[in-house]
Amino acid sequence: MKSIHKFVLKAYLGPMILTFFIVMFVLLMNFMWRYIDELVGKGLSAGIIIELISYAMANMIPMGLPLAMLLAAIMTMGNLGENYELLAMKSAGMSLIRITKPLIILVSLIAVGSFFIGNNLVPYSNKKMFSIIFDIRQQKQSLEFQDGLFFNGIENMSIRVAHQDPDTHLLHDVLIYDNRQANGNMNTIVADSGYIRLSDDKKYLHVTLFHGETYEQTRNNQWFTKSALRHHTFDLQDQKIAMAGFDMGRSDASMFSNSQTKNINELQGDIDSLERTVNTSTTRSYEPLLKEQLFVRDNSVLPLPDSMRIDKSGFRDALFTDSIARLPMREKERVWNQARSLAKNSRNMFAFDESASKEALNQLYRSKVEWHKKISLPVSIMIFFLIGAPLGAIIRKGGLGLPVVVSVIFFVIYYMVSLTGEKFAKEGTWDAVYGMWLSTFVLTPIAVYLTYKATNDSALLDTDWYAGRIKVVREKLAPLFDKLKTKLKRHGKRDDTQ
User: Fold this and answer.
1) pLDDT at 315
2) Choosing a second label site near 276 at 20 to 30 A (CA), which of 11, 28, 345, 404?
3) Helices marked H in 292-397 — which ranges?
4) Which residues are CB-neighbours of 218 under 8 A, at least 6 positions away?
5) What is the three-class DSSP state of 195?
């Protein structure tokens, strides 16, 4: 490898790593902001939080890599251009393609690696992340009391404390409403002080109360006729109540299987089976509806064999050979009941098959979207680099100022176009090929155009060049404006004299 290639490669690796971690940090903050309400107040251990963040970051790699490639390419080429190093390389007879050759090889390897990340790592991470989020949602809030407020985190119990000592955790002025009994009896406990805490395994609630009273209202499911109230005092009351939902249970990750948790081979298998299911359900729904229910006798709509036109219920002559108006009242009623029964059966059969077909179509569209998403990721990385490298050479500004602004603009365009295409593809409005590759079709001409301009040393984004061109235009238009002003003054003087 030439020294100049080593120099360019070293200049690119630093910004690439830096921008990748910056982008991942921003995406991670967005993820935490979405799930912060479900994570707070559950008493989760640091290990669970770290595990969830790790899986979430692995899931964000396909989104962070393209933006990191774009920003790093703009920063690298902008720094080289700002320090006149890029100009020196071109003066030595090196073209832009030759200068960026090691970067193209590096980005190509990253693009190939991104396919394996999106195909293997991301589905596994999604499966684990969905499992952890489900377990967190199933877990109840930790036992935390606030002064003067009722705690309703325990099913069929409500607890209020006036004050909790922050050092000893002693509760003062405790009020407990206990409705856990299935027969409808309710206990009300009032105590001067006490301790309420979960066991170490979070399966039991230990309640220790001092100097209080218990009121037990006995209903026995007959509160409207018989109701009794029992009352007794105590100096010490100790209870051990079985609890569920406070401990962090772990579900089997294989339960959370969808299009986002499968690799490309599994998606292809699902696509084939779903296409057969859709065709089968559509055929099963429409053909019997037309042949056996709606047009069983109408040869003009569906020419059918004689076997299909036989009235199996025994009313062939009454239903089809004679006019309904000529039938007796009882025959009309039987004809009407049979027609109504056939219509209801047709509607129920069609509705059931239609819902099954819609569900299969929905899964088919999502599977196709995920299949194309895994293929389009490496291509998008290459396109973002081919946009960023010539754009940085044209801008000739390094750092995190202008490159960040330009990168965000291009990424927003890419993200909006991708979301639009993905939405239409999931709805079935567009084919998955057009929906998932729409952003590629939009950005590829931009990458080709910028590469052409950078290769020919175009002043596309040079503000001095634009200022010079504007100055020239002003100088050319200045005599015309002077003549126009002179004419306007003359017309003004004529109007004044008149």
Assistant:
1) 43
2) 345
3) 316, 329-395
4) 185, 227, 228, 229, 230
5) strand
* C-alpha distances out from residue 243 to 42, 153, 157, 201, 276, Å: 15, 11, 12, 10, 48
Instruction: Provide the edge-to-edge strand list for the sheet that holds 186-198.
Output: 150-151, 157-164, 171-178, 186-198, 204-218, 228-242
Regions of the chain with pLDDT less than 50: 298-322
* Non-local CB neighbours of 483 within 8 Å, separated by 6+ positions: none
Q: What is the CA radius of gyration of the chain?
A: 37
What are the residues whose beta carbons fall under 8 Å from the beta carbon of 1, sequence distance 6 or more? 9, 102
Angle, CA 280 vertex, CA 279 and CA 285 arms, to 5°: 100
Question: What is the domain partition of the chain in residue ranges?
Answer: 3-139+370-455, 150-242, 260-369, 462-498
pLDDT at 457: 66
The per-residue pLDDT for range 315-338, each reduced to its tens digit, is: 444 444 445 566 677 777 777 777
With contact defined as beta carbons under 8 Å apart, do 68 and 114 qualify? Answer: no
Identify the DSSP state of 326.
Answer: G
Bridge partner list, 190:
175, 213
What pTM did the predictor assign? 0.65
Q: Is residue 387 within 8 Å of residue 298, measured between CB atoms?
A: no
Residue 110's pLDDT is what?
A: 92
CB 181 within 8 A of CB 241: no
Measure CA 430 to chain center: 19
